[in-house]
Write a structure and sequence with these properties.
Belongs to the phosphohexose mutase family. The chain has 564 residues and is an alpha/beta fold. It contains 18 helices and 22 strands. The chain has a five-stranded mixed β-sheet with strand order 1-3-2-4-5, sandwiched between helices. β13 and β14 form a beta hairpin. Bound molecules: 2-acetamido-2-deoxy-1-O-phosphono-alpha-D-galactopyranose and zinc ion.
C-alpha cells in the first residue's frame, strides 16, 4: 500500500479543519458541500473492508429523504447488509482524522482488522439523482483506485438495488444476477407467477399511483414498466421532471405530515403510494368518499404481509417459526393485532434497519418494518430450499400455496427494504386476496399518535434502554413520562435522540377518544437539570386537543424558556 500516494491524492479531497462528522444510523449525511473528503475516505475504507472480508463491498451515495442540497454515503456489507458496527466506528475515525493524520488512522484500521494488503479488493458504487451525486461518487472512485481496488460503477440506482447487487455478487449467483436486467427479471418473473393465481384482475384493481418523491424511484420504475406491463398499471407522479427531490412529497413527507404529497391527483378510493428519495421506503394511502385522507404505514404493510405468509403456511401444512420485528414507533394497535389476533410473536428493536434486519434473521421467516415504511421479509436459506422443493412436489391446493410462497420469496428484496419490491409484493397480495385498499386499512384502527422533532442544545443528554422505549438519563425524565401516560388509556410515549439528525424525537400515542370524553385536560411537567454542558429546563407536555394527543419536549439553555 502506497501511503504517500494516498496522502497526495487525499490533498485533492482535503478535509476542512475541525469538521467532525459521525457515521450514523444511515451512514454520513449532511450538506453536500462538506462531503468530498468523506467520499474519498469511504472509497479507501470500502477497499479495506473488501480486502478483509474477501468480498465485494458497496458504496451508495445518497441522503435518502433529506432535502436536495444534502447528500450522504453508506457502505454495504457482503450479504447486502448495513456495515458492521465496528467498521462504523472506523468510518467515523477515518472521516474525522485531520489531513496529516489520515494515513496513520488508515494503517491503524488495517492493523486492528488484520487486513492483508496483498488481497484483491472489489467495490461497487451507486448514486441517487441529487445534482451533487455525480461528483461525489467520482471522489469515492478516486479513493478506491488510489488503494489499488477494482470497481464497478452502476451509476444511478435505488439504494436497495445496490444492496441487491452486492448480495448477488457475494452469493456466487445464488441470489440472482448482479445487473439491472437481473433485478428486473427476477422481480417481474416472481410477480407475474404470483399474480397468475389471482381470480380478480379488473383494471381498477390493478392500477396504482406512485409518488416518486422526484427521485431515482421514477427512473427505475420506468425501466421496469415493460416487464410487467400486463399485470399492473403504474402511474408515476413527482417523477423528477419538474419538482425538487423530497420537496413536499415522498414517503417521509406523507408519513410525518399525514397528508398527501403535492403533485398527485387523488380520486376517492384510489390506491396511492409514495417512495422516498432513494426508494427504500414506501407508504400507501387513499382518500375516502368524504375526502378524508387515510395513511397505511409500514405497520399495516407488515400486518398484510405476515398474515398472507401465515395463511400460505397453514395451507401447505408447514409450521415454520415466523416473527415480526418492529421498533418503538410501531403503532400500539398493530402490535396488539399481530400478537392477539394473528398470534404472531412480535419483537421490538432499536430504531434503524440494521437492528430490525438482524433480529429478523433469527427466524425461519422474519418480517420487519419500520412504521415509516422501510422493511422486507427474510427467509432462511433452509426454508427457501424446502419451499421451492415443496412447490415442485405438492399437488392441488397445497401445491398452489407452495408455488405462491416460492414466488413471493423471490419477489422480496432480502438484502434490505425496497420500495419497488415491496410495492409489487403488496399489489400481488391485494390482487390474490381480492382486497381493496379500504379493506386492507380496516384490518385494525391506528391509535392516534404524534411524532415531533425538537431541536435541543445537546441531544446526548438523553440516553435510553429497552429498545429505546425508556429514558435512562436525564434523571427524572422517565418518571415524568410515566406519570403523564398513566393518566390515559393505552397511552405510550418516549423520547430518544435521533441517529440521523441533530434533534430529539418525541413520540406519543393514546386512545384519545376516551381522554376526549373525559374532557379537555392538559398535563405538563417542568423540571430542571444540570449537565456537563450547563443548565437545562425541560418540559413534557401532553395535552388533549380534539382527537389527538400532542406531546412536546424541549431542552433549552437557562437563558430562556421556550415551548413548542
Ligand atoms: P432517526 O433519525 O435515528 O430517528 C430515522 C428514522 C429511522 C431510520 C433512519 C434511517 C424514524 C422515527 N426514524 O432515524 O426509522 O429510517 O432515519 O433512514 O422514522
Ligand atoms: Zn431512504
Amino acid at each position: 500500500m502506497d501511503l504517500e500516494a494516498v496522502s497526495k491524492r487525499s490533498a485533492f479531497h482535503a478535509k476542512p479543519q475541525g469538521l467532525i462528522l459521525q457515521y450514523g444510523t444511515a451512514g454520513f449525511r449532511t450538506n453536500a458541500q462538506h462531503l468530498d473528503h468523506i467520499m474519498f475516505r469511504m472509497g479507501l475504507l470500502a477497499v479495506l473492508r473488501s480486502k478483509q472480508t474477501k468480498s465485494t463491498i458497496g458504496v451508495m451515495v445518497t441522503a435518502s429523504h433529506n432535502p436536495e442540497e444534502d447528500n450522504g454515503v453508506k457502505l454495504i456489507d457482503p450479504l447486502g447488509e448495513m456495515l458492521a458496527p465496528t467498521w462504523e466506528e472506523h468510518a467515523t475515525c477515518l472521516a474525522s482524522a485531520e489531513e496529516q493524520d489520515m494515513p496513520r488512522v488508515l494503517t491503524a484500521i488495517m492493523e486492528k482488522e488484520a487486513v492483508d494488503p496483498q488481497q484483491a479488493a472489489f467495490v461497487v458504487i451507486g448514486k441517487d439523482t441529487r445534482p451533487s451525486s455525480e461528483k461525489l461518487s467520482q471522489s469515492v472512485i478516486d479513493g478506491v483506485t488510489v488503494l489499488g481496488g477494482q470497481f464497478h460503477d452502476y451509476g444511478l440506482l435505488t439504494t436497495p438495488q445496490l444492496h441487491y447487487m452486492v448480495y448477488c455478487r457475494n452469493s456466487g449467483g445464488r441470489y440472482g444476477k448482479a445487473t439491472i436486467e437481473g433485478y428486473c427479471q427476477k422481480l417481474s418473473k416472481a410477480f407475474v407467477e404470483l399474480t397468475k393465481q389471482a381470480s380478480c384482475s379488473g383494471d381498477e384493481n390493478r392500477s396504482v399511483k406512485v409518488d416518486c418523491a422526484n427521485g431515482i424511484g421514477a427512473l427505475k420504475l420506468k425501466e421496469m414498466e415493460h416487464y410487467f406491463s400486463q399485470g399492473l398499471l403504474v402511474q408515476l407522479f413527482n417523477d423528477g421532471t419538474e419538482g425538487r427531490l423530497n420537496h413536499l412529497c415522498g414517503a417521509d413527507f406523507v408519513k410525518s405530515h399525514q397528508k398527501p404529497p403535492q403533485g398527485m391527483e387523488m380520486k376517492s378510493d384510489e390506491r396511492c403510494c409514495s417512495f422516498d428519495g432513494d426508494a427504500d421506503r414506501i407508504v400507501y394511502y387513499y382518500r375516502d368518499a368524504d375526502g378524508h385522507f387515510h395513511l397505511i404505514d409500514g405497520d399495516k404493510i407488515a400486518t398484510l404481509i405476515s398474515s398472507f405468509l401465515k395463511d400460505l403456511l397453514l395451507e401447505i401444512g408447514e409450521s415454520l417459526n415466523m416473527g415480526v420485528v418492529q421498533t418503538a414507533y410501531a403503532n400500539g394497535s398493530s402490535t396488539r393485532y399481530l400478537e392477539e389476533v394473528m398470534k404472531v410473536p412480535v419483537y421490538c428493536t432499536k430504531t434503524g434497519v440494521k437492528h430490525l434486519h438482524h433480529k429478523a434473521q433469527e427466524f425461519d421467516i422474519g418480517v420487519y418494518f419500520e412504521a415509516n415504511g422501510h422493511g422486507t421479509a427474510l427467509f432462511s436459506e433452509a426454508v427457501e430450499v424446502k419451499i421451492k422443493r415443496l412447490a415442485q412436489e405438492l399437488q392441488d391446493e397445497k401445491g398452489k400455496a407452495a408455488k405462491m410462497l416460492a414466488s413471493i420469496i423471490d419477489l422480496f428484496n432480502q438484502a434490505t427494504g425496497d420500495a419497488i419490491s415491496d410495492m409489487l409484493v403488496i399489489e400481488a397480495i391485494l390482487a390474490l386476496k381480492g382486497l381493496t385498499v379500504q379493506q386492507w386499512d380496516a384490518i385494525y384502527v391506528d391509535l392516534p399518535n404524534r411524532q415531533l422533532k425538537v431541536k435541543v442544545a445537546d441531544r446526548r443528554v438523553i440516553s435510553t434502554t429497552n429498545a429505546e422505549r425508556q429514558a435512562l438519563t436525564p434523571p427524572g425524565l422517565q418518571e415524568a413520562i410515566n406519570d403523564l401516560v398513566k393518566k390515559y388509556k393505552l397511552a405510550r410515549a418516549f423520547v430518544r435522540p435521533s441517529g440521523t439528525e441533530d434533534i430529539v424525537r418525541v413520540y406519543a400515542e393514546a386512545d384519545s377518544q376516551v381522554s376526549w370524553e373525559q374532557g379537555r385536560r392538559n398535563h405538563s411537567c417542568v423540571w430542571n437539570l444540570t449537565t456537563a454542558k450547563g443548565f437545562f429546563k425541560i418540559e413534557i407536555k401532553i395535552e388533549c386537543t380534539g382527537t389527538y394527543i400532542v406531546n412536546s419536549y424541549q431542552t433549552v439553555p437557562c437563558c430562556g424558556f421556550l415551548r413548542v
